[in-house]
Amino acid sequence: MRRKTGEVRRLAECIRELRLARKMTQSSLAEAVGLSRTSLVEIEAGRRRVDTVLLRKLARALGVQPWDLLEPIGEVTRSDVAQEALEAAVAEVPSSDKTQIRRLWTTLENYTWLLGKLGLDRPTLPASRRRYGASASKSVVRGEAIRVREMYGLGNTPCSANLRQWIETCGIPVFRFHLSRDSISGMFVNHRSVGPTILVNASQVCFRQIFTMAHEFAHVWLHRDEHVVASRIFATAAKTREIEEQANAFAAEFLMPESAIKRSLASRKNADGISPEDVVHLHRHFGVSYSAMLHRLAALRVVTQSRLKELQQESPVSRARRLGYDIDRSEVGETETLEWYEQLPAEYVELVIEAWNRDYISEGKAAEMLQTDQHSLNSYAMKWATKTYLENEIPRSVGG
Questions:
Q1: Is 99 part of any domain?
Q2: pLDDT tens by residue, 133-150
Q3: Distance (Å, rounded) from C-alpha 149 to C-alpha 153?
């Protein structure tokens, strides 16, 4: 890539300013992009040209887009807008939650370094058909949810059981951290290098976590211009932003398609109308809460408002037990204990292990980046290596 002398000087200045703003040394930035410190000194002095490949590596390591390095430096470029928005969004959460959310940001910075070190690009979502501002109607948003299901071949089948895996295969990392139960339900963070990221409050009931995941995916799909959205989906206080209502509408349609609900009801509904057992079967089948299913049925006018109030008086857990369903610990007020690898995106864990295997980081550093101990890391890495070997070596036809 050939550039004029003035452009080279501006690029050199921009790289240096961003490096200093992120408190990186020349050695650490050079290592992140696979250069010697001397080479980086030459680049920052404007005496060495930067080709397209190196430009992308530098941008990723500095947490910006490649074109940001080619533009005049301004205050917005020097400071990471998403990080500032994140701090503002969680200003009123408990201090323990702030620690977890800052852990999220540190992990995203590690993510950036790993991608640069390993020379990898992250997958990106296809562009949505239009911009969905605050004025977009719920019917339009629901239509988009139907279109997304069709585009990804989900049909009318419930998708809650594998929702996290599906979202991550779309290129969106999903974190599950324990926050206070009455704190935020989840977050959408648009990191400049990693891209759209989702955080789910793992302290909430399992069914609520599924809805939160779909809600945050809705923000990713509909509101990509946002830097950070902290969601309190299940709070009764405070006025809800329009984009939160849009995300709820999208999530409801995405998790509980109207046609699928009516097909399920066709075989369950009796002459006396919707029974509590019908609602329990539906909410378990679609992987959402009893309350979410009730509101969906009311929105579809399958139940009247008077019947809705009657059904709300039921105890769904007791009904589910009598119907033979397994009860999750979170449904009876217990908090699920997550292993460290269940809290982090699968891709991030694999990137850390790959960097460790290539001797880019030490075993201790790998354990630190995953926030675990070295024994647990080795145990997981052995299982991961075995699984990877079996997937790559055993013919898919084995076993029929």
A1: no
A2: 777 888 999 999 999 999
A3: 6
